[in-house]
Design brief:
2 strands, Ferritin, mainly alpha, 58% helix, two-stranded antiparallel sheet, 7 helices, 194 residues, single chain
Amino acid sequence: MPDIVPRRRLLLASATTLPLLLATAGCRSSDAFTGPDPLAGRPRPAPDVVTLQAVIASEQNLIELYRTALSGDSAAAGPAQELKPLLAQHEQHLTQLRARLIQPPGTASAPASASPASASPSVSPASASPASVSPSGSASAAAPAPVTLARLRAAEGASAAGLVRRLATVEPALAQLFASIAACDATHVTALGG
């Protein structure tokens, strides 16, 4: 038993002196942890994530324009055989973009309008499916505006230009994907008669 007593005394002595030593050293818990405050809520997404969400929203808008153009009510429905491969390419682009978006578990998927200010006006959600407002102030869904080949060309050109503008602001791997999609969008302008 004599061995146990000194160990207990040593343990008690160290347990009482450790807080005193930390207090005199000026050590605080906030100094020990320099990361984000876990109680402050979710951190803001990184700039690349915000940019990627905006590009995904723009690509979704292009897909909706093509789907509207392929519907029977559209003015561009005549060259449907030409539009289907272009739509398929945009769906592949969307798949590739979504694969690059990594979100923490429990968060919602990328919003359809992650950054409305960064989307081009010719590819905005309002242009894909406008809503009319009745005199009583309630919005009622109207039939989608007809999508012409000129409107598709303008949307493709705006998408390509927007992607090129973003190249210098994102990491190299994402810039490479954006450049590839921008080149494809530029060839779509030509394929649509531009």
